[in-house]
Amino acid sequence: MKNRHSSSHGSREQGFELSYKLAREQLAKISDIEKQCRKSGARYVDPTKIIIDYLNKPYHITLPDIEISLEDSKVEVPLKDKILLLHYFTLAKDTPATGILITYKQLPGGISYFPAFSQRAIAPFVNHFGKNPELLIKVAAKLGGREAEYGDVSVNVNAFDRVPITLVLWRGDEELAPNGNILFDANISDYLSTEDVTVLSETIVWKLVKDIPST
């Protein structure tokens, strides 16, 4: 069993490495970086540096070597975060927010991938916050989250400049277990692929869980 887990983990890491390599190649193909900054909301510093805000923190991308670092930090940026940053920047189409919220099932291929999305993002979200929804508001503030008006408790987190994520909880009672969902602006597919949305949602949930105060 241990070997199987190690094999699975290793293949997943290899998948991330390949995705990162391809994402760097896509960025290298962009001839007008300043224009792409306008499409994504990234800050163009000079021809060798751009800054992208991701989950309330500024990340620097240096060019042409395409190195990614968190501002004022020596901590290595996780590979999946690097991939999300590059995918968001290279895919960005400057589509304005619609104000219309959609579910994961409404994304391209979302119905097929929903069981995995639910297991990776919604289930841990509800498991950790369903019995204490108000805690969500408190821990989301660290990610720049703001209270929203959906369900019994909800927050809106700007994952990227053009990608708001809304996390919603409904309290349980004696007959119904707590429930929750993660919603997206209808423009999200102009910034991230459906698989990226899964990884992003999972990342946000576990960052929130990590910030739950220990008792």
Structural class: alpha+beta
Cα Rg: 18 Å
**What is the total tally of β strands?**
9
Oligomer: single chain
Estimated share of beta-strand residues? 15-25%
Give start-end ranges of low-pLDDT stretches: none
Name the strands of the widest sheet in spatial order. 5-9-8-7-6
What profile does the largest beta sheet have? 5 strands, antiparallel
Q: Calculate the terminal CA-CA distance, rounded to whole Å.
A: 33 Å
**Structural domain count:** 2
Supply the number of helical segments: 6
> Can you name the CATH architecture of the largest domain?
2-Layer Sandwich
Enter the CATH topology name of the largest domain. TATA-Binding Protein
Structure description:
- Helices cover 43% and strands 22% of the residues.
- With 215 residues, the protein is an alpha+beta fold.
- The chain is globular, with a radius of gyration of 18 Å.
- The two termini are 33 Å apart.
- The model has no long low-confidence stretch (mean pLDDT 93).
List its salient traits.
alpha+beta, 9 strands, 215 residues, four-stranded antiparallel sheet
Outline:
The chain has helices at 2-28, 33-40, 79-91, 110-129, 134-140, 194-210; strands at residues 43-46, 49-54, 57-62, 67-70, 101-102, 146-147, 153-160, 163-170, 179-185. With 215 residues, the protein is α+β, with helices and mostly antiparallel strands. Helix 1 packs parallel to helix 3 and helix 4 runs parallel beside helix 6 (194-210).
Summarize the helices and strands and which ones pair or pack.
Blueprint: H1 2-28, H2 33-40, E1 43-46, E2 49-54, E3 57-62, E4 67-70, H3 79-91, E5 101-102, H4 110-129, H5 134-140, E6 146-147, E7 153-160, E8 163-170, E9 179-185, H6 194-210
Antiparallel strand pairs: 1-2, 2-3, 3-4, 5-9, 6-7, 7-8, 8-9
